Amino acid sequence: MADDVKRHTYFSNPGGYSHAKQDQYKQYLRKLHQDFIESWNEKTEVDGKLSDFEKSRILGTGAFGVVYLVRHTNSGKYYAMKMLEKEKIVKLKQIEHSFYEKKILSGLNFPFVVFMKYFFKDNVYLYYILPFIPGGEMFTHLRKMGKFDESSSKFYGAQVILALEYLHACELVYRDLKPENILIDRTGYIKLTDFGFCKLIQGRTWTLCGTPEYLAPEIILSKGYGMSVDWWSLGILLFEMSAGHPPFYASDPMRIYEKIVSGKYRCPSHFSSELKDLVSHVLQVDTTRRYGNLKDGTLDFKNHKWFREIDWDNLLNSRIPPPFIPKIRSPGDATNFDIFDEEKIKESPVCLFEEEFIDF
């Protein structure tokens, strides 16, 4: 990646992103919001069954279940099948979160986020069928390389900004931004995944959820919060991509929280002055001073000097050459994902928790 990046240039955008262009873009986002609300108000019908898919291997595991690479027997296309165990969802009191995730995934439609292709359930599991993104997690590539150069961090960070701007336009707070939840597609562009903590909100919410290193101070302090928490997480992500580690780190989560609330961190010496400046405007404990949350919204990012080389319209349309394209040998190649032990699939002669999941 490194050698390619040094020779990599972006389409320059010296004039910046004007208010007029942003107003035009907001109209586009309003249309996408309308589409999302229409989808939200519809009941998603069960449109598949387990026998339609051949399981290949595990792509990832989580608290509620497992993600498999599967092949659709009719079309031959590969998908990621998220199997959520109903019993675990009930035990961990996550029925509402799982319901939200299903509704949200059904309505998403944006280049840099995943969406749900099919949904069904059986006696034991819920099944969310999502596109298979073969490049694997950003986390894996970041750990392999140690850190990204700023050119790569900029390319990925700009797409995350557009993805968050889209989600916020749909009144969705994401709440789980981190390299593990960013997948790299075959094109080298990204897709946000895992919408288990995503929530439709108007105003504030109070739930404590997320990953310790990425939590915003207002979540930790139980102040009630809105979309601003995602911009804080973006600041953490920009820092981690460029440094190889998050700005607030400790082995004990309580110590991490203390550091976050204090807002004190140290940038590595290799950070450019522009990156240091941007991070300082995002990792603001005071939300009234935090980028993304000010009167100009995302324009503060789009016109920041660190992003001056990015042509945002070309980026949205995937017209900028990526700094890195993952090696993918075939449509079902999952070698960019970690190897996991096989998990025993549970079965039941009766439908478990039928009442709890009746609305799904």
The appropriate CATH architecture of the largest domain is Orthogonal Bundle
In total, the number of strands is 9
Tell me the major beta sheet. Answer: 5 strands, antiparallel
Assess the beta-strand content as a share of residues.
Answer: 5-15%
- Uncertain regions spanning at least 5 consecutive residues: 1-12
Please, could you describe this protein's structure?
This protein is α+β, with helices and mostly antiparallel strands. It folds into two domains: 205 residues, Transferase(Phosphotransferase) domain 1 (Transferase(Phosphotransferase), domain 1); 124 residues, Phosphorylase Kinase, domain 1. The chain is 34% helix and 13% strand. The protein is built from twelve helices and nine strands. The strands form three sheets. The protein has a five-stranded antiparallel beta sheet. A hairpin with a 3-residue loop joins strand 4 and strand 5. Helix 6 packs antiparallel against helix 8. The chain is globular, with a radius of gyration of 20 Å. The N terminus is likely disordered.
